[in-house]
Amino acid sequence: MLLPLTSLALATYILAFPLLYRQAGVEAASFSSVWLAMAGWSLGPWGGLAAGLANIPLHLALFTWVHDPSINALQEAAGLESILSPLLGFAAGTLRNLLDERTRTLAALRRRERTLRLLSAVNHATSHANTQEELIRIIPQVMVLEGGYRAAWAAHAEPDGRLEPLAWAGEGAEALAPCLAASWEGPRPTCLRLADPGLRAHRETAERYGVRAVLLLPVTVSGRPWGCLAVASAQPAAFSPDEQAALQEVAQAFGASLERVAALEALARHAVTDPLTGLLNRRGLEEKGRALLAALQTRNEPAALIFLDLDRFKEVNDTLGHTAGDQALIEVAHRLKATARRTDLTARVGGDEFALLLPGADATTAQQVARRLQKALEAPVELEGRAFILGASLGVARFPEDAQDLDGLIRAADVAMYAAKHSPAPLVFFNATQDQAFREQVRLEHELRQALAAHQIQVHLQPILDLRTGETVLFEALARWKVSPAVFAPLAEAAGFAETLDRQVLAKALAHLKALRDAGFPGGVTVNLSPQSFANLMLPDWIRAQLMAHNLPPERLVLEVTERLLLSGEAALATLQDLKRTGVRLALDDFGSGYSSLSYVHRFPVDLIKIDKSFVQEAPESPRAHAILEAIARLSEKLGATTLAEGIEREAELEVCRTLGIPLGQGFLLGKPMPLEAALEWLEAPQTVR
């Protein structure tokens, strides 16, 4: 624009020079500074210098043109002003460059300031956004309020390539959102003007809201295309390359912020999620459960909490290892999620303990859900080619009847679950009387753990006699503590440390047997082990080591097993077979009191069958019990096993057993459990049936 004016100024100066000369004389040459300054301004320093050099011959020609004999044209043309004219042109051009540079610098600073302001706003939004959804909602508002744009959008690229606007801000943003999808060309910047197809279809809407240009900027998250950040301007020539580069920085910061927030969300999920099963962990149950109960309380709605504990999970771990145990837990979690309602919270709150929080559930609904859970867990779990029925004990607590807050509800459900583990019923609803019983059980469990740690469990010996000769042939090792074995043995099994108890009792029993044999006793000792011990495949190796340590022949040890153990699965039978090959003898305890185990007795011959005391004690008065006692005696004889009658407490019971030819007997009538010292004295006394 300035160059034509410079040319016009030069032409005007040349044509007007005669007139100027008549008015000002040789001083007319000073008017050339105007066009020289304009030449330098428009052509730059070197252009102005060239114009100044050209000014000397120009004035020689002009002074010659005016035909004034009183002046020397060459002298005037080469005067001081003409000599300085190149410097004037150069200075004008330099000044123009300096001013232009200053203008560009100020514009760049303003752009940078806006970029930094936007980046700061994006970072501020990131620090205050707890979720990706919240960040996506805030960013368009930041672009409008801090960036001064007419409108802004955050849009996500769907897997099918479609662009889906998620949030927007500014006038007309919602109405213009469809133009983004129509103009999206993938992960590269796209600038739209009113004449472009993307905006032309929405030209009327764009003009109504004062939008003249739209820029779509790609956003990547973790190196993968996420979508775009789009802004609209009221300026038709908006979004220069510099502005696009600055806004691309903002889009990159937005992508990085999405990545950071996603990482924080993942950490938050990890903090409340069980990594193995994907269910909530205890913390997650507490956080979500408190919020849920608070909402239910405002609406005066009920809820129920179900706690469940797997009954035979330890057997899986001990038999197949922790990898199989993890698979079992994952399968249980799948069944829980399949059983739970859509609104329920499912959680794994311990090793093999799970919880379900049922919003809006009354007692009837809670019982229905609990029954479905029981049924789901009754189906066998296939692990490494074996089928395990895990079973579960369930406790249910109701809100607000049993507790007014989540902590109280968890405690009540835990108490009910504990009661279920120690009762025949696998499903128990909380009641106030359970709480005191629970406290007592917890106290006893703690004291029993301490007693085991200090090896304070005592072992007494009860004699087993040959009913024909009165000779003591065996002793049964019985654990003794400050409460009855009927109390602490189930407690140890439910708490998961029955194996520890078994090993301490067995080790002491073998030490007692060593002392008895040193005193001349030729017989052996029987020890009752829990199913937890037999689930450990290392049990035979441990027993062999104990026998060697006490220098005892394996046939002097008789391990008592129950019918429940024989029915528990192939793993326990494999352990029994290993022990049998070692030379250890096996006794079937309380025969006839549980499930029919004749098939197992046939498949796995035992050495000793102990008849349950209920048949022995009823036989003198009950012909039916007498017949059963006789049948068992004859069956044992046919199977090649020795029969032992338990619980003989009266002479009449002893007489029945003798009449039926039962060779061995045990009971208070024959001899009570006694410490080792008393057992040694017992052996020194005359050996007759007392």
Automatic annotation (TrEMBL):
Annotated InterPro entries: Cyclic-di-GMP_PDE-like, EAL_dom, EAL_sf, GAF, GAF-like_dom_sf, GGDEF_dom, Nucleotide_cyclase, Phyto_chromo_attachment
EAL domain ranges (all copies): 441-687
Record-annotated GGDEF domain positions: 301-432
Matches recorded under CDD domains: EAL (cd01948), GGDEF (cd01949)
Record field: transmembrane: none
Molecular function via GO: cyclic-guanylate-specific phosphodiesterase activity
Domain Phytochrome chromophore attachment site residue range list: 202-253
One Pfam family here: EAL
Highest rank taxon of the organism: Bacteria
PANTHER family: CYCLIC DI-GMP PHOSPHODIESTERASE PDED-RELATED, CYCLIC DI-GMP PHOSPHODIESTERASE PDEF
Protein name as annotated: Diguanylate cyclase/phosphodiesterase with GAF sensor
Source organism: Marinithermus hydrothermalis (strain DSM 14884 / JCM 11576 / T1)
UniProt lineage: Bacteria, Thermotogati, Deinococcota, Deinococci, Thermales
